Amino acid sequence: MIRxxxxxxxxxxxxxxRWGDISEWDNLVAERCSPVAAGVFVRxxxxxxxVLQPDNQSRTQVYSPENAVSxxxxxxxxxxxxxxxxxxxxxxxxxxxxxxxACTCGQMVATEWSDCYTQAEIRFLPDTIVVSE
Length: 133
Ligand SMILES: [Zn+2]
What we know:
By secondary structure, this protein is mainly β. The chain has strands at 3-6, 18-20, 40-44, 48-52, 59-64, 68-71, 81-83, 101-103, 108-113, 121-124, 129-132. The mean pLDDT is 94. Bound molecules: zinc ion. Residues 6, 8-9, 11, 103, 105, 107 line the site of zinc ion.
């Protein structure tokens, strides 16, 4: 079994799970559904970005970088992290501004999608976490 911890302070951020293959991740789920089952972590080989053009000034918004680790929302130990950065949405987090969850030590560690019109998913940032066996 594996679990994810904060690379900055070592605090455990998830319950125990197992690695899953990319075939266990479904990017086309309905809103409020998770693309990955509870108990499974899937490493995403590609980054998730969008090129935005507000005021004709192009900028790239990174929702999650390559090698991010996708997890079901139930896998997170909620008391060990907090909302951070730009965290907007309707009744949850839209994920549209990129990373929005930090460990309680202050280290940004993930992007969460939890709004009524998005999927329900956590993607851990690969450079800010430690995956332990
Ligand atoms: Zn931490």
